[in-house]
Design goal:
526 residues; mainly beta; 4-stranded antiparallel beta sheet
């Protein structure tokens, strides 16, 4: 009895098909002889091994259909030189096509093919990252300077980035002076500058009771914040929020630039900044404006080069260099006295005219009887002055902002406030590490991986309020001055606070050991 030989290329290829390549030595050696692979068989034949025919097979040229059936072997569908099919025309196991080579990897499988977006940092993708379904691959999100990567990209999912300092309320802690103290802004009007303070509570981690500590201790708790403990059924964070003096609002502007605000005192939120470039310490300020009128203006009457009075250029003749130069004035009297200004008493009654210029009027017509004494007060010329709005940073403004999320230090928008270096702070996270190693000098990984940070919530806070270089906000403890208020320390263009530390390197450790310019931000709200 004869049976029809197998047609290796025939069969329904669907996303539920099961394929077998037991006669393909390479597939067998790579433990890829069956697809989809069943982990429990470790590359061996599963209970339902599948068929050996379909779109991804061809007849083994060494087999014949005489005494036995044809042998069907796998085709490398990723190799266009074998299939003659372009990459865009490849049909994958899921029934999709394949994205360009830079964006996706083509993976040959027994009887079929898969296409996966690169999802990472590989030479084949020109060190670019793509994610998607293999047919459509999208460029991975790049984390910005103020973000770190919380979840890395995969072949099907995008990279996730989170803000290093989410907008909100924080306690700002310093251990300069070797005691954890918070930056505070007291409500008293005479307390103009922020200072540092500890409320006296201590951690139970020290292993001593109150009476054994050698000094009066305000409270003991597990995790005090600047000496504030959990009490009255409230967390330390909530107690700080209720007190208000150590509450600072951080709001992101762009890049690593932020506003720092406080609502302590009266009048709403104000911005921490420097009222003037030479101000010794930062304070709470807002931008105030007022209208200003120029001291001098111009009259409607002017003079030609020859000295004749004129209303406009045409009164001075047809020469190209003839111009009617307006008369400069300080008051309206300058436009009406000492000028031969009159009013018509005849054909153009009460119209203003120039007595010395044969009664010439503004419209170029001539008044037959132009009398100086006939000008009424209502018709007198005005000294036209320009007005402008001037502004300055003030610590005495009657009103700040009610809503910190929409407050720009008294200015209308982000662009306006970014132009004022006095209130813009650059805040850089310390101890940040990249998500992966460089690939041939091309770092296509995120520059900051959240889980790999060497330090938790430690930052330097910098300002350009005094010039063109960033300076660090710090306490001047090194000279034993016991300074209570933070000020700026010049650190050059690197902005590392006058030390040898280099941002983004292991040398940051020297800055952290010194403590005077390192700040810990403690979120007060979930």
């Amino acid at each position: 009895m004869c049976v029809e030989c197998t047609k290796c290329t025939e069969g329904d290829d669907t996303s539920s098909s099961v394929y077998a390549c037991p006669n393909d030595p390479k597939m067998v050696s790579d433990k890829l002889a069956y697809f989809p692979a069943d982990p429990q068989f470790d590359g061996g034949p599963p209970t339902n091994p599948g068929r050996t025919s379909g779109r991804g097979f061809k007849r083994d040229p060494l087999s014949s259909c005489v005494h036995s059936d044809y042998t069907c072997i796998n085709i490398d569908e990723c190799d266009a030189t074998i299939t003659g099919v372009s990459r865009a025309s490849i049909v994958t196991y899921e029934g999709l096509h394949c994205a360009p080579e830079e964006e996706a990897n083509c993976i040959d499988k027994c009887g079929t093919v898969l296409c996966e977006c690169t999802g990472g940092c590989f030479e084949v993708s020109n060190f670019k990252c793509y994610f998607g379904d293999g047919q459509t691959c999208n460029a991975c999100t790049t984390c910005e300077d103020h973000e770190c990567e919380s979840d890395g990209p995969t072949t099907t999912t995008d990279r996730k980035c989170v803000a290093l300092i989410p907008d909100g309320k924080y306690a700002v802690e310093t251990t300069s002076g070797h005691t954890a103290q918070c930056l505070v802004m007291w409500a008293e009007t005479q307390k103009v500058f922020p200072e540092r303070f500890n409320w006296g509570g201590e951690s139970t981690d020290k292993g001593l009771e109150k009476e054994d500590r050698g000094m009066e201790v305000a409270d003991l708790c597990e995790n005090p914040i600047c000496g504030v403990c959990d009490y009255s059924g409230k967390t330390a964070q909530q107690n700080i929020l209720d007190g208000g003096s150590a509450v600072w609002v951080f709001r992101h502007l762009a890049g690593e630039e932020y506003l720092i605000m406080s609502a302590q005192g009266t009048g709403g939120f104000r911005c921490l900044g420097f009222r003037a470039p030479l101000a010794p310490y930062p304070e709470l300020i807002t931008w105030e404006t007022e209208a200003s009128t120029d001291a001098e203006g111009t009259c409607a009457i002017g003079t030609c080069i020859g000295g004749n009075l004129c209303w406009n250029d045409s009164d001075c003749g047809s020469q190209t260099d003839q111009r009617c130069t307006p008369t400069v004035c300080k008051t309206n009297l300058d436009c009406n006295n000492n000028l031969a200004l009159g009013a018509c008493t005849a054909n153009h009654l009460n119209a203003l005219c120039l007595v010395a210029e044969n009664g010439k009027m503004m419209d170029g017509k001539t008044c037959t009887t132009c009398v100086r004494d006939s000008v009424t007060p209502q018709a007198q010329l005005q000294c036209a002055k320009e007005s402008s709005t001037i502004g300055m940073c003030s610590n005495t403004a009657a009103k700040g902002g009610d809503d910190w999320q929409n407050y720009f230090c008294g200015l209308p928008d982000v662009a306006s406030v970014k132009s004022k270096k006095a209130v813009v702070w650059k805040i850089r996270a310390l101890g940040q590490q990249p998500a992966g190693a460089n690939s041939e000098g091309k770092n296509c990984h995120s520059a900051k991986k959240c889980s790999k940070a060497k330090y938790k919530s430690l930052f330097v806070i910098e300002s350009m309020a005094r010039g063109n270089n960033y300076e660090c906000l710090r306490f001047k403890d090194g000279d034993f001055s016991n300074q209570a208020n933070p000020s700026l320390e010049s650190g050059g263009s690197s902005g590392m606070c006058g030390t040898t530390a280099v941002y983004g390197t292991d040398f940051e450790a020297s800055l952290i050991a010194q403590k005077i310019a390192v700040w810990k931000l403690i979120a007060l709200e979930n």
